Amino acid sequence: MIQGDENKVHLDVQFTRYREDGSVLGTYKSLWIVSKMDGKWGVQARSSYAA
Description:
Blueprint: E1 3-4, E2 8-18, E3 24-37, E4 40-48
Antiparallel strand pairs: 1-2, 2-3, 3-4
């Protein structure tokens, strides 16, 4: 978590994509914004350089 409060968090995320054979296609950094709206948490936005 980069920053946040009781209704929104900004997350520094890293994820990996895999091929069908299990080999790594790529690993990417991403920024996710997760917000609480109407009492439920959900992803509001995300940004990455993944192709």
